[in-house]
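Hi R.,

Here's the chain you asked about this morning:
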Amino acid sequence: MLVIAHRGSSGAAPENTLAAFRRAVREGADMIELDVRLSAEGEPVVFHDRRLERVTGLRGRVRERTAAELEKTPVRGPSGRLHASACIPRLAAVLRGVPRGTGLNIEVKTDGDRRRSGVMVNRLGKLLRASARKRNLLVSSFDHAFLRRLRGKQPAIALGALYAAARDRGRSPVRLARRCGATAFICSHAQLQARWVPMLHAVNIALLVYGVDHPSQMLSLQRRGVDGIITNFPARLCRALSLHP
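And the predicted structure, written out as tokens:
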């Protein structure tokens, strides 16, 4: 089972920063999940929210700032304190800075951005074309139309379909994944249905589950056969798995 660090080791370091990613590597994570949006000039940068207020000292939208401005913007850690040495990175810097032995799950955010998703497809495709051959790489999104466009342009890049309950409730996870050409289906711990595990495995689609930070939940999901857990505390999950192999 894959140990996947949610926004890096975000329970201990500023989320979606190189500091959080490097800590996750040290803690033994197999893969790092991170979020990508476009800056004002259309460069992929690593940030979760549409707006900057929650984790920075700035106001406004990510898409209104240049990548050069963002990479000088400190990010708050779990304590709420801004860290001058932990800023918003460009995706290109993450691809260079995270060892190739650590996988990347790049969650693409297209919500709140009026630019056509084709801009993201083109910019991301150029960046990831080479990396897809050198490391375990997955591009995931709630925007399944974006995933289909990316598959058409970059068929070698593995895709993960994120489950949105308001939109997808009652629909087969296998059908949702196959429509995108995805090899992974991703849902929260609260959304997971037991029947999905054998259903997805029967057609060789991996099941990844996020929102899991407690050892008891981690071990329960391991017993149920999920393929990866996305957690804010990768060290905690690694310890749980070493004690209960």
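Residues 189 and 217 are 9 Å apart (CA to CA).

Let me know if you need anything else.
M.
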